[in-house]
Design brief:
alpha+beta; 17 strands
Length: 513
């Protein structure tokens, strides 16, 4: 059941601001009414959409006459006190809508929420297309299949005792067999569904295991959403034909509600994930709201592109990552810019993250290129740091010509150097000191003192190893070290000096080999 509190929370993400609420936000909302100035008949509904109403005062008056519990009206805060007093008197919650938000978008969201909140007498929600297919089959007296626009099965009625081979194969394969689909295409069935709302009879075809079908398009406006197929040997007529047409309109509402509900759930999930990635004091509570288990998580940062197109690929990845009910998916995702972020409960074991990435890649088209980075295991309160690790791992993967996703646990040393190089590029490396002075000396005199210092440090002071790396005699290394000590204050006997020089050599762009 949809309550006022959820309506307010969801619409807040669409630019609607609550200016007044009744004493309780647990008010149940079951219906919607849209203002229509051309219709003089009285209309009532729990949620009143003041479309085309210029003033908030007039909107409240109309909402009271519609016996609404909540209303949406365009306007800017604050509202006049007299308007708020009128709303209080009528027990109406007032939500102000920003001018940039379209009524068509808001109405779709409101209708979706209200439809989602309803339940049938059997306790099933409107998304239960199988229950609807059973009801339709009972009223028509024949088996029913509901398909999407790609001939994939969405639902079907229960009894299969009299089903023909084509229906059985369709149900088992979850889509119309290619041979039957080509038959329908040759008969012009799909062309008819694309342009007409009238039911069409398809003649039996024993060669294809088909007894005959009555089919009608499921449409929302001009958009074809799917179709309803009834197994029958003769065209439906009279009441049965009317029931089929009404059924198509009902299924259209089901499919629209499912689409809106999925978008709403994605937005709610996305907002909560972003809160965790940006850092929030109530992280454990947010994790619980997302339906995730207690424990530690990894942040996965993913980018996907098709050629030079940087957005289509990641949108496809986001759609795949958020398909299905929350409890049926291991992680929770959000799309931020051109990066898909997913929180995955996998603690110290990185295998679930790599398996999740492999599954995403497997369901994407082959032409999509996927780059990914995986952060280290993090507590809920550490997920902001986990996101930074995932971003840096992704950046490291992007810089590489190919290979597997970069995992922070395995590449933390490279990421540390990347951070230090970023600091160096902003001028945080001292302009003076042994490394800087030897760099200048080499540039001015053509010496190789810096390379010698690097080789000696990497060899941990072993003259023979350093000489082998430089392809010179150990005495040459010894001589260069004496000359370098005359140029700058090396003090190689001090561990902290050696460590500082190693870092400076690793991060300074002019010294990296």
């Amino acid at each position: 059941m949809l309550r006022l509190d959820r309506l307010v929370n969801v619409l807040g993400g669409y630019g609607a601001r609550l200016c007044h609420a009744p004493a309780s936000r647990e008010v149940e909302l079951r219906s919607v009414v849209v203002h229509d100035p051309t219709d003089t008949r009285p209309a009532t509904g729990d949620v009143f959409l003041a479309v085309g109403v210029d003033s908030a005062a007039e909107a409240v008056r109309l909402a009271r006459s519609a016996r609404a519990a909540a209303m949406l009206v365009r306007g800017s805060p604050p509202l006049d006190e007299s308007v708020l007093a009128e709303a209080r008197a009528g027990g109406i919650a007032v939500l102000l809508v920003e001018p940039e938000v379209s009524w068509s978008q808001l109405s779709g969201v409101v209708y979706g929420l209200v439809l989602e909140g309803r339940e049938t007498d059997a306790g099933r929600g409107p998304t239960d297309l199988f229950a609807f297919a059973d009801t339709l089959a009972t009223e028509i007296g024949s088996a029913v299949t509901i398909e999407d626009q790609m001939s994939r099965v969405l639902a079907y009625s229960g009894s299969q005792q009299t089903a023909d081979p084509a229906r059985l194969e369709t149900i088992l394969g979850r889509r119309v067999p290619d041979t039957v689909r080509r038959l329908f295409e040759g008969k012009g069935v799909f062309a008819h569904l694309a342009t007409s709302d009238e039911p069409l009879f398809v003649d039996p075809s024993p060669a294809h295991g088909l007894r005959g079908r009555m089919v009608v398009a499921v449409r929302a406006g001009r958009e074809l959403l799917g179709s309803i197929w009834v197994e029958c040997e003769q065209p439906l007529s009279g009441t049965r034909r009317t029931v089929l047409g009404d059924g198509a309109r009902a299924v259209a509402l089901h499919l629209l509600r499912s689409r809106v509900s999925a978008d709403l759930e994605r937005q709610v999930e996305s907002d909560l994930v972003i809160r965790l990635l940006e850092g929030t004091a109530d992280a454990p509570a947010v994790v619980s709201r997302l339906g995730l288990p207690r424990g530690r998580f990894r942040v996965i940062a993913l980018q996907a592109h098709i050629g030079q197109e940087r957005h289509a690929g990641v949108l496809l990845a986001f759609e795949r990552a958020t398909t299905g009910f929350g409890w049926s998916r291991p992680g929770r995702s959000t799309l931020f810019g051109n990066t898909l972020y997913t929180l995955l409960p996998c603690d110290n074991d990185v295998a679930p993250a790599l398996d999740w990435l492999a599954a995403i890649v497997n369901v994407l088209p082959r032409q999509v290129t996927v780059l990914a980075g995986v952060g280290g295991a993090a507590e809920p309160t550490q997920l902001a740091a986990g996101r930074q690790e995932a971003d840096e791992s992704l950046a490291l993967r992007t810089a590489r010509p190919g290979g597997a996703p970069v995992v922070y646990d395995e590449s933390w040393d490279e990421i540390l150097l990347q951070r230090l190089r970023a600091a160096a590029s902003s001028g945080r490396v001292p302009a003076r000191g042994p490394v800087a002075e030897l760099t200048r000396h080499d540039a001015e005199h053509g010496t190789r003192y810096l390379a010698t210092l690097r080789a000696w440090l990497e060899a941990q002071g072993d003259l023979a190893v350093a000489a082998a790396r430089l392809d010179v005699h150990p005495n040459t290394v010894r001589y260069r070290l004496r000359r370098m000590a005359e140029i700058t204050d090396l003090r190689l006997e001090l561990p902290e000096k050696r460590l500082a020089m190693i870092i400076a050599l690793a991060v300074s762009p002019d010294t990296r080999s």
